[in-house]
Write a structure and sequence with these properties.
The chain folds into two domains: 23-68; 71-337, no CATH class. It contains 13 helices and ten strands. It has helices at 4-37, 44-67, 94-109, 111-118, 129-153, 157-162, 173-176, 179-185, 272-278, 304-307, 312-329, 331-337, 340-376, and strands at 70-78, 163-166, 204-211, 214-222, 226-228, 232-235, 239-244, 247-251, 255-262, 292-301. The strands form three sheets. A five-stranded antiparallel β-sheet has the order 1-10-9-8-7. It has a three-stranded antiparallel β-sheet with strand order 3-4-5. The mean pLDDT is 84.
């Protein structure tokens, strides 16, 4: 949704600022030119005034630029958890599907993780074990998404010139300690579930990438296991840190990017009809949980970017990543994309049609019943 009035007002303010600064700059230049042309006269005031105006314009420009260095993007994501504490798939809603996969395959390989989730007496309370697992799973899904995105963006010649691959030994221990990342990034040769010797062949999906002449397996999916080669292709010199357990930061030469995941025990208002008729979940409403996670992405521009040029190709992936997150995370955006308001209106129309048809049928049967009763009498 475009804010037309705000956009017009912002353009007006920018144009007015450019106009005023142009006049001030032209006046300053004329003062300095006046001093240079009439140096024999005692008019140092013209030189100092002109230089002062130019310096003031530069200071104002720097202050304005520095005051808008930080941009925050907030996404509200929702899930549906049924009476058996299973994270349900919502078709075409990427975040929901990835979270459902993470719990399905994580629990398949780690019984202790499954018990921690199922046996939690304070299920999905803000500081419960289940809430911690929920945030860790969301962190895994987001970082995997970033891993795939940066791997696709920095490939071939672009990777050689602008980026390098960051592997497990480049990541902070708090990321590696994420229980879902730890399970899915463990090499397949160390996991018995991938040892198919003497076992019935299972359905398997293998994703590979070609880097030069080498082909590398980056992801494998079977009926009950998942592997992901957890690496990032990022600009050279990048540093990945973990300021706290809910935040991951990426420090680049000119920018900083941080991903924060919040869960405070609140539920998302997902319509009942959506859950029943779109997601196909028939559980009673009272038995369902719809936790809401808030993901905040912060982009901070470093002071040096005001004064030094940087290569756009090195950072354009940030824009495309943010755009992809809007559709991936936001339940509201997803509902708009599938036209849920129209579908809900159609459901209401169909219900009323059924209601009126049923009432008409009952009314049409009443005269026959009365006639039958009269005949019997």
């Amino acid at each position: 949704m475009k804010n037309v009035i705000n956009e017009i007002d912002q353009k007006r303010q920018k144009l007015l600022g450019l106009f005023v600064s142009s006049i001030a700059f032209a006046f300053a230049i004329s003062l300095i030119a006046n001093f240079l042309c009439n140096a024999e006269k005692n008019n140092l005031w013209a030189l100092f005034t002109g230089c002062g105006i130019i310096l003031a314009i530069l200071v104002i420009y720097i202050i304005v630029r520095l005051s808008h260095r930080t941009k925050k993007f907030t996404y509200k994501a929702g899930l549906v958890i049924d009476h058996s504490k299973k994270v349900c798939y919502i078709p075409r809603y990427g975040f929901s599907c990835d979270m459902a996969d993470a719990f399905k395959y994580g629990f398949s390989e780690n019984e202790g993780l499954k018990n921690l989730w199922n046996d939690d007496k304070d299920f999905l309370d803000e500081k419960s074990n289940s809430a911690s697992l929920l945030k860790e799973s969301a962190e895994y899904c987001l970082l995997e998404n970033l891993s795939v995105h940066t791997t696709d963006y920095f490939s071939g010649e672009k990777k050689e010139k602008l980026a390098r691959e960051y592997k497990e030994n480049d990541l902070p221990s708090l990321i590696i300690k994420n229980r879902f990342i730890k399970i899915f990034s463990e090499p397949m040769e160390n996991r018995s579930v991938f040892n198919t010797t003497g076992k019935e062949n299972k359905r398997k999906t293998v994703i590979t990438k070609v880097d030069g002449e080498e082909e590398e397996v980056v992801a494998v999916l079977t009926d009950d296991a998942m592997y992901h080669n957890f690496t990032f292709n990022l600009p050279k010199g990048a540093k990945i840190t973990k300021p706290n357990k809910d935040t991951t930061s990426f420090d680049f030469k000119f920018f900083e990017l941080s991903i924060q995941i919040e869960y405070n025990g609140c539920s998302m208002g997902i319509p009942r009809d959506f859950i029943k008729y779109y997601a196909g979940i028939s559980d009673d409403w009272e038995t369902l949980k719809t936790p809401q996670l808030v993901i905040e992405i912060t982009i901070k521009e470093k002071i040096k970017s005001v004064f030094y040029p940087f290569k756009k190709a090195e950072y354009e992936w940030i824009d495309s990543f943010l755009n992809s997150l809007s559709n991936y995370l936001s339940f509201t955006k997803f509902a708009e994309a599938i036209g849920w308001n129209n579908l809900q209106a159609q459901l209401l129309v169909d219900r009323n049609k059924y209601k009126f048809a049923k009432e008409a049928k009952i009314k049409s049967q009443q005269p026959k019943e009365i006639a039958c009763q009269a005949a019997n009498e």
